[in-house]
Every structure is written in C-alpha cells, then in structure tokens.
C-alpha cells in the first residue's frame, strides 16, 4: 500500500504539472486571442499567476520525489542528469529557432499565437531545467552537511517560495523592491555556493568529467537565459511569464553554483592525486587492521601490506623475504621483478653500504629501516623495512625505485605505520589462533575430567556391619587419586585406595591403568600381599621409568570382624579404637608399586591382620591431606589429622570426611586451594 | 626452588640439594644424577638442606636404582630431616637406598662395608 502510494506521487505530480502547463497555455492563448480581436476574454491575470505557481510547485514536487526515490546515485550521475535536462531544454529552444529559420519571412512566422505557443514550451522546459538543477545543487550542497547549512538551505527554499508570490504585489519588473528581492536570492545563492565538499572526493578522471558537465550546464543556463530575455523583448506577449523574480533568482543561483563548482574543480585538479593517495592510504590502513579472519593465513595481510607500501611510495619493484634468519629465506609477494634480477639485486644490496651492515645477520635485528641510494643499472634507490613481531623479525620488505632519493620522510613514515599495523594484525591473528586452540584443549580437558570422574566409584559397597564414605578432589582438571570397593559375598569386601605419582593428565592415565589392574586381580581372590605383588608385576610393564603408584589393599570380613591389609608405600592407615578411645597409625613396611620392577618386590610386602570391634573407625587418605601446606609453608601433617579423628570419634563417616576437609581448609586458610589431589575414605564399624 | 651443588672429594662425589624438589625441577635433579653415572662411583647425596620432596622427586631416585646396581655405584643419602625422611620411609625407598644420618656414617658405609 505504502509503496503504491509513493509511486503515485510521482505520476500525479507529473500529470498535474502537464495539465497546469496546458491550462496555462490555453488561458494565455485565449487572452491573446481576445486581445487580438478586441474582446475581453474575462480571464484575470491572477489566474495565470496561480497556474504558474502551481506549475512551479508541481515540478519541484516531482523532482524532489524522483531524487528521494532513486537513492544516492553519486555525484557524477546526478550532475549528468542535470546536464542532460539542460541539453534537452536547449535542444527544444534550438529546434524552435530552426523552425522559425525555415519559416523565413512567411506570415506564419509573425503569428503571435504560434510564437506564444513556443514561448510557453521554452518557459516550461527552462523551468524544469532550473528546478531540477537546483535540486541537484541541493544534493551537492548538503553533502557532509551540518546544522547551519541545512538551516541556510531551508531559509533559501522559503525565500524562493515567497518569491513565487511576489508577482501578486509587484507587477512592475525591475523596480527597487524587485531588484532587492532578486539581490537577496543571489546573495543567499552565493553564500550556499561555498559548500563544495563533494569535489575532493572525485578522482582525477571524475573531475575532468564533472568539468565537462558543469561547462555544459553553464552554457545551457546562459543560452536559455538569452532566449528568455529575447522573448521578453518581443512585445506581443499577452502576459509576462519569465519576468519573474523566482525564475530569475533560480537562473542566478544555478549559474553561480555551476561556476563555483567549475572553478573549484578546475583548481583542484593538480592536487587531486594527493588526496586520492591519502584516501587509498587510509583505506589500506583499515584493510590491514581488519583483514585477518580466524583460520586465514597471515599471507593475506602481507599481501595488502605490500600493495600499501608500494602505492605509498610509488615503488617500481618490491618483494618480501620471510624468515631471513634461516638459511633458506622464503620469498613471497614478488612484484614487478623477475627472480633473476631480484637475486642479483639482493646480492648487490648485501655487498654495498649502507645495506651491507644491516643485512649482516648479527645486527640485522636492531634497525627500524634503511634507505639509501644504490648504484644499480635499473634501480637507483632502495628501502628495506623489517617486519617485527614480538621483537623477532618475521621478514624484510625490499622496495626499490628507478629514481635517486626516491624515498622521502613522509613515505618512510607511512610505510613504517603500515608495517606496524600489519605486525599488530599478524600478531593478533596468532594470538587469536592460540586462544582458539587453548579453548579446544580446555574442552578436551573437560571431557577427560568427565571420563575420570566416572572412573571413581559412584557407589561404595557396604553391609549393615559398617558405614563407608569417600571423597576425591583433583588439583587440576584431572587427578591421580583412586579408591574403590568390591563385594565378594555378603560379608566379604575388597577395598583399595591409591595415589599415582605426579598429578594432572599423566597421573590420570596411570590411575585408569590402576583401576584396570584392580578389577582384573580382584577377581582372583588373592591375599593382600599377593595382590600387591601381582599388581606390581603388571604395572612394572606399564608405568614410565620414574612413575610409581602407592596403594593399600584391604580385605574385610564382617563375619569374622577381621581386616587383612597390605601397604605399598601408601600413607599409613589411621585407625581409631573405640575400646581405648585412641587413634593411631597402623605402621607397617611396604614398597610402592613400580619402584622395584622385578621378583624382589614380594620381599618388601608385609601382610597385616587385625580384628575390629563396634565403634572402630578406619580412615584411608592420600598424601594431599597430610601434605596440604598453609601460607607459612607448613604441612597439615599426620599429627593434625590424628587429632581430628581423636576428637570426633562419634561422628558418622560422612561427617568425619567433612570434618577432616574443613580442618584442612581451616589450616591452609580458606582461600588457598590445595596444590595436590586429595582423597579420603572413612569406614566406621557398627557391630 | 632447588639448588644443586656437586663437589668431588677424594674418591667420592657429594651432591648437595638445597630447597624443594617438585615436579617443576625434578628434571634438573635427574640431569645432575645422570651426569654422575660412572661405574663404581661413590655418591653421597647431602639432603640436610632439603625441605620438601614431591613424588616426582622420589621418582627420580627410584628410576636410578637399577642403573646404580648395574654400574655398581654406591649411593648414600645423608642428613635428611625427619619430614623428608618420612616421605622416603612411607614409600619404602629407605629399604632400597642407604640413608644415613651424617657424613661420617656415610663414609663408613662407603669405604668399610
């Protein structure tokens, strides 16, 4: 709906404009016919003026709508539109001339009706030309507008609108008030005509074109003005259409702006290449800082860099040498020079001062750039700029020119800026890629963490003789602590706790191996010492040379109320005896798994036996608990751990676990995290 | 921080460790011991200024046990404080490595045994 409405405005205004022109023609011819036949046609002059004003406004609305609808066609296209309108109007005027030339001195040539018809035709097209050009000037004047210019233009439009009605008050042309009004319009036109900001944005070629178009507009304006004036001098006009302050004012404005534009464009021609150059540099700069997208190579930036440097200094040949520190430098982006000549030139530079000193590998890093003249057959000056990223030299840019002293300070400055920007871009690109990679590693670690969590048991076996609780925390994403239970019969259980040397990913892998060993060997119903000997044998083949695993393996029989256990280098079990209400560590010899990788191992394993009674508590833990350090670098230690149990024997296993952890945190200070994995497993015997 | 000093005395080498051995510097300790491997060498490791040793540090000693045996190297650790000694003891390494309280005992072990 909206669009249709807009389409119609153009057509309606066009139609109304044509109809108004036709009625204007009809009214005026009727009046002329009446005057010729001494009859009063009864049409007052005001009627003509109103039609004329309607015609002006309709043409304005039509072009205004036309320009708004077509968007921004660019400066040259707009000017060309005005030029073509001008040529058309001039064409009509010329055809009229030619027609009268053909008529010669025949009667028809003196016919006032025919002459008036052509007068109306020329008036119509001149109006169209003036109004359309004025709107184009508006577009140019308001380019990069500010508030002041917009206000000035609006005032100008108001003055022009008022000037249309001037004829109602003053039919006497060229009296004082008429001249004053015209003068006002012209002054305003001159003030507005200093707004020529669009001209610098034209390229050299576009400037030539616009000079051509503008001169056509100036000539058209002049010619149309001449035609109109000639008609006015013709005394058989029934009513003066063109002795109008609006028309004359527009003539002045159109001519003044065209002349200003013409002259300014002409004088801007010699400096236009400088402006173009600066504009290219700005655009290149922007391209350099934006060009690398994640995943793309830095070569693209270097490509833009080369183009930018070459255009900034009007270079005749250039190339980029990457990684000159290595023995086989890699040449990329070679421009306007053949391999053979480049190698020769490079050799030439290396042998001659000042380049010789800098290209020497030992002090090549220190310089910002070197420029100087060379005594080569084809090239007379050269500039070498290193591209540095994080103080390491990525490569050298070689620029050579056929003229002597081809590189001035401004060129070198802008090239240095380009190189700096390119370095930043490449560096950012590298950092970004690293960040993406790190992000991926983080994701992988999260997966590892999930997998490892699943290696720790979700459920610990027990029966109504004892309660059990456990917890394990890793210092890094993954850890090397391990515990698990296994139930043989209603009364018989196997329990293991272990700690893999080291921490992080390598420890996590070894822990997974340990889990495999446990589940294989637990099936064999071995005694604790046999279990450890076999586990040592198995792990000796899997663990790296300097890795070991400490563990304690327990067999629990609730029908006999007995525990059999063997220790393989693991932290001694903490045991609370309910009868005596004392806590102690169960001391026993034992060697860590993987330390002695031969049959000698079994000599170092002891098997222990104890019988428990109701209320006894067994605390199994890893060294992360006792080795947790506070800010004074003091360890939590065995003494503190023992005290926690000694003072809290009435708690249930879960509470004991939490009590131990809170005591450790209290000791090390709430804020600091433990720097090792830690695990606790607590069993309390109920009957 | 770990500082490793090696000095030769008549017939034996003294390896002095000062500070803490953890995962970050266990490689240095490894390199130091690796450099001392010569058949029939006598090595005294002075750990009196050693404040802490992590499982990675223990792993270094552990990994040389076999090499010491095949090269008939005598390796004695002296001067460990009770905390560090306890770490060796719990793992059972004190059963495989000779640990003495002072240098006199170590020399006795090296030259009279």
UniProtKB/TrEMBL annotation, chain A:
Gene Ontology molecular function: phosphatase activity
Coiled coil feature spans: none
Entries under SMART domains matching the protein: PP2C_SIG
Segments traversing the membrane: 12-34, 46-63, 84-103, 123-141, 153-170, 176-199, 211-232, 244-269
PPM-type phosphatase domain sequence ranges: 463-685
UniProt-listed InterPro entries: Bact_Sigma-Reg (IPR052016), GAF-like_dom_sf (IPR029016), PPM-type-like_dom_sf (IPR036457), PPM-type_phosphatase-like_dom (IPR001932)
Alphabetically ordered keywords of this record: Hydrolase, Membrane, Transmembrane, Transmembrane helix
Protein's UniProt keywords contain Transmembrane: yes
Protein's UniProt name: Serine/threonine protein phosphatase
Automatic annotation (TrEMBL), chain B:
InterPro entries in UniProt: Anti-sigma_ant, STAS_dom, STAS_dom_sf
Pfam families linked: STAS
Signal peptide extent: none
CDD domains: STAS_anti-anti-sigma_factors (cd07043)
SUPFAM superfamilies: SpoIIaa-like
Domain STAS: 2-113
GO MF assignments: anti-sigma factor antagonist activity
Record-stated family: Belongs to the anti-sigma-factor antagonist family.
Protein name as catalogued: Anti-sigma factor antagonist
């Amino acid at each position: 709906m909206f669009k249709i409405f807009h389409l119609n405005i153009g057509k309606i205004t066009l139609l109304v404009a044509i109809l108004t022109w036709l009625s204007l023609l009809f009214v005026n011819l009727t009046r002329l016919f009446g005057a010729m036949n001494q009859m009063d046609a009864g049409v007052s002059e005001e009627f003509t003026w109103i039609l004329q004003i309607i015609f002006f406004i309709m043409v304005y609305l039509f072009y205004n709508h036309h320009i708004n609808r077509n968007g921004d066609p660019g400066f040259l296209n707009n000017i060309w539109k005005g030029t073509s309108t001008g040529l058309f109007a001039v064409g009509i005027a010329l055809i009229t001339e030619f027609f009268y030339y053909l008529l010669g001195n025949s009667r028809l040539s003196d016919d006032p009706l025919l002459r008036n018809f052509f007068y109306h035709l020329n008036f119509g097209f001149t109006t169209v030309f003036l109004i359309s050009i004025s709107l184009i000037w508006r577009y140019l004047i308001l380019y990069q507008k500010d508030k002041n210019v917009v206000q000035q233009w609006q005032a100008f439009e108001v003055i022009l609108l008022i000037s249309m009605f001037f004829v109602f008050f003053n039919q006497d042309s060229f009296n004082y008030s008429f001249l004053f009004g015209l003068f006002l319009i012209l002054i305003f036109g001159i003030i507005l005509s200093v707004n020529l900001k669009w001209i610098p944005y034209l390229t050299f070629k576009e400037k030539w074109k616009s000079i051509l178009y503008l001169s056509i507009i100036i000539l058209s304006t002049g010619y149309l003005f001449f035609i109109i004036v000639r008609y006015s001098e013709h005394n058989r006009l029934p009513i003066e259409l063109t002795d109008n302050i609006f028309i004359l004012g527009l003539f002045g404005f159109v001519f003044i702006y065209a002349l200003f534009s013409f002259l300014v464009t002409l004088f801007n021609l010699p400096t236009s290449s400088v402006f173009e150059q600066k504009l290219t540099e700005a655009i290149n700069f922007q391209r350099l800082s934006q060009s690398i997208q994640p995943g793309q190579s830095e070569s693209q930036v270097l490509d833009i860099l080369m183009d930018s440097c070459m255009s900034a200094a009007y270079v005749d040949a250039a190339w980029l040498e990457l990684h000159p520190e290595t023995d086989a430098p890699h040449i990329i982006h070679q421009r306007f020079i053949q391999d053979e000549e480049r190698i020769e030139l490079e050799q030439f530079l290396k042998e001659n001062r000042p380049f010789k000193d800098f290209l020497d590998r030992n002090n090549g890093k220190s310089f910002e750039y070197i420029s100087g003249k060379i005594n080569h057959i084809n090239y007379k000056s050269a500039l070498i700029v290193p591209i540095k990223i994080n103080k390491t030299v990525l490569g050298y840019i070689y620029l050579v020119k056929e003229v002597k002293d081809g590189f001035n300070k401004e060129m070198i400055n802008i090239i240095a800026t380009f190189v700096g920007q390119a370095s930043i871009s490449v560096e950012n690109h590298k950092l970004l890629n690293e960040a993406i990679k790190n992000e991926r590693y983080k994701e992988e670690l999260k997966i590892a963490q999930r997998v490892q969590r699943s290696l720790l048991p979700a459920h610990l076996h027990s029966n109504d003789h004892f309660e059990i609780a456990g917890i394990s925390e890793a210092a890094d994403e993954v850890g090397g602590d391990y515990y698990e239970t296994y139930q043989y019969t209603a009364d018989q259980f196997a329990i293991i706790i272990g700690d893999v040397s080291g921490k992080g990913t390598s420890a996590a892998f070894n822990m997974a191996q340990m889990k495999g060993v446990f589940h294989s060997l637990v099936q064999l119903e071995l005694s604790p010492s046999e279990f450890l000997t076999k586990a040592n044998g198995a792990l000796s083949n899997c663990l790296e040379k300097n890795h070991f695993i400490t563990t304690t393996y327990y067999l629990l029989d609730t029908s006999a109320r007995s525990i059999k256990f063997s220790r393989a280098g693991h932290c001694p079990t903490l045991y609370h005896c309910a009868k005596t209400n004392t806590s102690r560590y169960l001391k026993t010899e034992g060697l860590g798994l993987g330390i002695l990788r031969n049959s000698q191992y079994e000599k170092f394993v002891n098997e222990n036996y104890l019988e428990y009674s109701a209320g006894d508590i067994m605390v199994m833990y890893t060294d992360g608990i006792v080795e947790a350090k506070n800010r004074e670098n003091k360890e939590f230690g065995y003494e503190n751990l023992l005290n926690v149990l000694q003072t809290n024997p009435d708690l249930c296993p879960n509470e004991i676990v939490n009590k131990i952890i809170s005591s450790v945190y209290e000791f090390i200070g709430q804020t600091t995290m433990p720097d090792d994995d830690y695990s606790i497993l607590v069993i309390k015997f109920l009957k | 921080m770990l500082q490793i000093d090696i000095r030769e005395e008549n017939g034996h080498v003294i390896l002095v460790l000062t500070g803490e051995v953890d995962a970050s510097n266990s490689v240095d300790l490894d390199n130091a011991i690796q450099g001392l491997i010569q058949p029939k060498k006598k090595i005294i490791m002075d750990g009196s200024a050693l404040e802490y040793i992590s499982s990675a540090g223990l792993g270094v000693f552990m990994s040389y046990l076999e090499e010491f045996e095949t090269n008939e190297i005598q390796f004695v650790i002296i001067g460990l404080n009770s905390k560090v000694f306890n770490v060796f003891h719990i793992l059972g390494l004190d059963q495989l490595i000779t640990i003495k309280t002072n240098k006199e005992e170590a020399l006795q072990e090296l030259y009279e045994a």
